[in-house]
Amino acid sequence: MSALSALPFLKPVHLRSPRSSPGGQRRHTLPASEFRCLSPEDAVSVFEIEREAFISVSGDCPLHLDEIRHFLNLCPELSLGWFEEGRLVAFIIGSLWDQERLSQAALTLHKAQGSAVHIHVLAVHRTVRQQGKGSILMWRYLQYLRCLPFARRALLMCEPFLVPFYQKCGFEALGPCEVTVGDLAFVEMQHPVRGHAFMRRNSGC
């Protein structure tokens, strides 16, 4: 059984639009809201959202298109997309890391034997921002990680102005991150993941 099939909170929410055909019969529509792991076929949609979200703020993207494809081929199970009526509106991409703190190599590597999930990027489409979708998606992602037997903690690096957002999501600041991108400096943050055994006892995973 795959990790995804065991997780009820990642299965599609089959809410359908009440649109009807001219004859009065309800026609088939896509699920109104769906959470699922991403695939390499989603890479272009992911990059379009990320590019718009980050270029105007920092002048660069955390992941370029080839890097998005790289991670979605290596570890799609560490990604999560939020789709509304089939359209991607928000996403997270992660990979595994095997050291206590992030280093420059963590930007491009997936350490398959690691127990820390490095969250590379969280982005929300511009048309649905300021609706709390980033917080909801992160909550669902952390719930998902708690059902993965190898995941022990989540790590990310962010610019200082984003620290309060991630603190509200339950992350704690570890201090300055040694990773730099151009002139940008980052704060490294961590969230404990209690692991498969705890969640199996307490939430049916």
From TrEMBL:
What enzyme class is recorded for this protein?
transferase
Q: Is Transferase tagged as a keyword?
A: yes
Q: Which residues form the N-acetyltransferase domain?
A: 33-194
Pfam families from the UniProt entry: Acetyltransf_1
Name the Gene Ontology molecular function terms of this record.
aralkylamine N-acetyltransferase activity
Q: Give the GO biological process terms.
A: circadian rhythm; melatonin biosynthetic process; response to light stimulus
| InterPro entries, per the entry | Acyl_CoA_acyltransferase, GNAT_dom, SNAT-like
Pathway field of the UniProt record reads: Aromatic compound metabolism; melatonin biosynthesis; melatonin from serotonin: step 1/2
Per the UniProt entry, the Enzyme Commission number(s) are: 2.3.1.87
Instruction: Enumerate the UniProt keywords alphabetically.
Output: Acyltransferase, Biological rhythms, Cytoplasm, Melatonin biosynthesis, Phosphoprotein, Transferase
Q: Which Gene3D superfamilies match?
A: 3.40.630.30
Q: Where in the cell is it found?
A: Cytoplasm
One Gene Ontology cellular component annotation? cytoplasm
Q: PROSITE patterns, per this entry?
A: GNAT
Catalytic reaction equation(s) = a 2-arylethylamine + acetyl-CoA = an N-acetyl-2-arylethylamine + CoA + H(+)
Family the UniProt entry places it in: Belongs to the acetyltransferase family. AANAT subfamily.
**What is the protein's name according to its record?**
Serotonin N-acetyltransferase
- Protein's organism: Leucopsar rothschildi (Bali myna)
Q: Which gene encodes it?
A: Aanat
